[in-house]
UniProtKB/TrEMBL annotation:
Native source organism of the sequence: Heterocephalus glaber (Naked mole rat)
Gene3D superfamilies: 1.10.268.20, P-loop containing nucleotide triphosphate hydrolases (3.40.50.300)
Keyword Metal-binding: no
Domain Dynamin-type G: start-end pairs: 90-331
The name this protein goes by in its record: Sarcalumenin
Gene of this entry: SRL
Short name of one Pfam family: EHD_N
Highest taxon, organism lineage: Eukaryota
Amino acid sequence: MRALLLLCCFLASLLLSGQAEETEDVSEEAPMRDRSHIEKTLMLNEDKPADDYSAVLQRLRKIYHTSIKPLEQSYKYNELRQHEITDGEITSKPMVLFLGPWSVGKSTMINYLLGLENTRYQLYTGAEPTTSEFTVLMHGPKLKTIEGIVMAADSARSFSPLEKFGQNFLEKLIGIEVPHKLLERVTFVDTPGIIENRKQQERGYPFNDVCQWFIDRADLIFVVFDPTKLDVGLELEMLFRQLKGRESQIRIILNKADNLATQMLMRVYGALFWSLAPLINVTEPPRVYVSSFWPQDYKPDTHRELFLKEEISLLEDLNQVIENRLENKIAFIRQHAIRVRIHALLVDRYLQTYKDKMTFFSDGELVFKDIVEDPDKFYIFKTILAKTNVSKFDLPNREAYKDFFGINPISSFKLLSQQCSYMGGCFLEKIERAITQELPGLLGSLGLGKNPGALNCDKTGCGETPKNRYRKH
């Protein structure tokens, strides 16, 4: 009995001492970090008016609608790639996407960059999984929350295609308008954290497909980790598969670095590379930023100078994406036009081969099935490479056309030679002119091209993929 009494006294003393320490912690608030480097790097304190790009964007939209979209619709390109370009996407601001495991500091990082902590605008954060929605932070005259169904119904925004993922997803989509100067130039997207012990089906919507939609449209992708969550599970592995081909947009962040001593930080940094090495198959190692992105000051006896330099480097990357908004948009539309052109040439070649092989006594379904099952037998892809100066690296997967023609009968298409009119010209000529003259000319009008009008397929190849202008070389 006496031992039990002593134990109770001991526990009570621990509880009281814990409350005393908690009281001291509350009374002594942690010092806040200086934010001057954020305003300086992102030029948030400058009073100069925002650049007016409306004329260039209007010209870009006209080129898309008159020179690219007719061929895109005629050959049903959207059913092959599932990527429909809207006017809202053409005129949209650069998008920065935050991905990573749960509770690594994605929402806290957004609060820190925007200075939203301890305000009514801040995103909810915590040690437990807190973000269950896709949250889009946009600029607005006042604080306003927009439901996902409203965002999808508004054709003026770039999010209307998200309606195809179903009502369950739209309930997990939320938009927040905040009157912040940085959001006048960029849009942030916060995503639900990856939880490896939860199956995708339990989310109630196609999580990977939704992530792919945002990845395809993001100008910069921050993949955030912290020292306690370096393991790679099935969902994170699937996410990195979806990031294939977007390596130049990826920036990996090792957050909460000031929680570690120097020796442990080096070990964690190596462990992160070891975990990600099988997932990123590129010759150049990915850029990794090591810092602590939250408003409180760095912990004592840590590498504050290193962390600050890393933070400034990341902000410079973000600013570069904002500054190169138009060049990036034009390059994206040109790349899209190249893919549409290649798709139209392939469908035309399938159709021409089908017409050549058909006789009066032939069974059309069997003839075309033979062509689709083995296109190399009929030199479908080799003919495109030989006659149209298309890069072999830009050719779509052969298997994709089995599904494409399974939905769209070959008889529903016309030959490219028949896609011409006296007043409107030929679809193929218009898209090639857009690729080789109009879009490079638009870049030239921004002071970037020396002689954009001199470009043609013979010199550059219409299958050339535009370089990413904000990638560090």
